[in-house]
Amino acid sequence: MKRVEVHTKTENLKPILDALKKVGVSGITVAQVRGRGSVEPPMISGLRGTAKYAADFNTRNLIYTIVEDSKSEEVIRAILKAVDSGGEKVFGKIFVTPIEDAIDLGTGHRGSEALK
């Protein structure tokens, strides 16, 4: 099993979720996260618009799912196609990590059976 994790801007959220649904991924977790990477945080205006300051962090969406090893490349391709930028830089990353085991709390099923 693999955990496929996507860090992306809000405008990419719906296209990615639609793409994951199309390839049959049903279990998806989405969270709004803050962090700092290679992209400068946005400038924020003060209350009356006179003061400006740089935010400490960028706000992004974190989407992740656990899939069978055999499905991970299909999922990655679907995500990349959903945010196709024509070769321009799109802010975000995909991380793929191995999952050693999964256990369903209700049934006790393990591994692939826990994902159903």
CATH class: Alpha Beta
By secondary-structure content and strand pairing, the structural class works out as alpha+beta
What sort of overall outline do the alpha carbons produce when their principal axes are compared?
elongated
- Give the domain tally: 1
Helix content, binned percent: 10-25%
Order of strands, main sheet, comes to 2-5-1-6
> Could you say what the CATH architecture is?
2-Layer Sandwich
Largest β sheet strand count, sense and barrel closure: 4 strands, antiparallel
User: What radius of gyration results from the CA coordinates?
Assistant: 17 Å
Mean pLDDT: 87
Give the SSE order as H and E letters: EHEEEEHE
Cα(first) to Cα(last) distance is 13 Å
List low-pLDDT spans. Answer: none
How large is the share of residues in beta strands?
25-35%
The CATH topology: Alpha-Beta Plaits
Architecture overview:
- This protein is α+β, with helices and mostly antiparallel strands and 116 residues long.
- It has a single domain, classed as Alpha-Beta Plaits (2-Layer Sandwich), CATH 3.30.70.120.
- It is built from 2 helices and 6 strands; from the N terminus they run βαββββαβ.
- The protein has a 4-stranded antiparallel sheet with strand order 2-5-1-6. A two-stranded antiparallel sheet has the order 3-4.
- Strand 3 and strand 4 form a beta hairpin.
- Helix 1 crosses helix 2.
- The chain is elongated and about 60 Å long.
